[in-house]
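Table 4 source record.
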Amino acid sequence: MANIVICGANGYSTPAEAVATGKWDGSTWSGATPAGTTYGRFARGVRFGNSHFLQKNLPSQQSRVYMGAAIYVDTLDNGRLMQVQDAAGTVQCSLFLNNDGSLSMMRGGTTSLKSSAPGIISPLRWYYIEWSPLVSDTVGQFEVRVDGVTVLTEAGLASPIDTKASTVAGSTINTATFIVTGSFNANYTDMYVNDPTGTLCNTFMGDGRVDGKAVTANGATTDFTPSAGLNFQNVDDDPGNDGDATFNESNTAGHKDLFALANLPSLAGTIHAVGVACVGKKTDALSRFFRNLLRSGGTNYEGADVALSGTAYGGKQTIWMTDPATSAAWTATGVNNMQAGYKLQT
């Protein structure tokens, strides 16, 4: 799998919308600190206070993950910034911010294993913080990077290193969570979670930017019936989706909608992956499934089936770590020329 989620937190106006996209499996923040405004480095992001979080369930249990996010704290206080949990929800280990600006590796949420030098983090500025824990009660490992520089590792600790809080045999990591616990607020954006499998996106990705590409026009195919106007005008909601106010509808299996998208900003750098996340719901009693679509090089490529609910909008993010038209790394030209959309599968 390797890359599990990429998210700039663009366009979320409620925690439910973050989950509905299928990028996240749990989230909460208060009405006083909404997402979808100007909490990101480049525009949007989420703003967390105490006990606010975005949580991602891994497709399969792993002993190690890699997590990264751009983080901005208002003040320095003691509390977690990231954590990993087992299948029962036990916090195995966590990355902890201290009020002297140091970062600590914690077993669970309270037992400090090692701390960085003080002053690594200051308030009121952005840092790109990456963390990789390996959960084990005998051969645990960890590394923390800030703006690409390693500031904390397990080197020098007495062996064995116990990074596993759970007493359940065989339990490691099932969930990765970006979180704030403490008396401070923090802005999060440009997040990723990777596992160590596969050959791509299976380690630290470095300081990166997740750009949301706005829908700009109808694409190669528009089979669905619009509630009003043109099809693309019913899926250009910002921030968040507008529910039943505007939509495209079909009851014919195989129908597709594709849309042209805005170009990337003129930035140099590696494009690690492209994610497509659509949301929908069903309006009849039948079992209904849709698939995310990506069109590249004149060919359509489909994600896995996503079950539709009759009560709420929901979806799933499909990630392509290479351009499926070339089986090579994405280029800016390839991303700018791609289209995205959805297909009613059944």
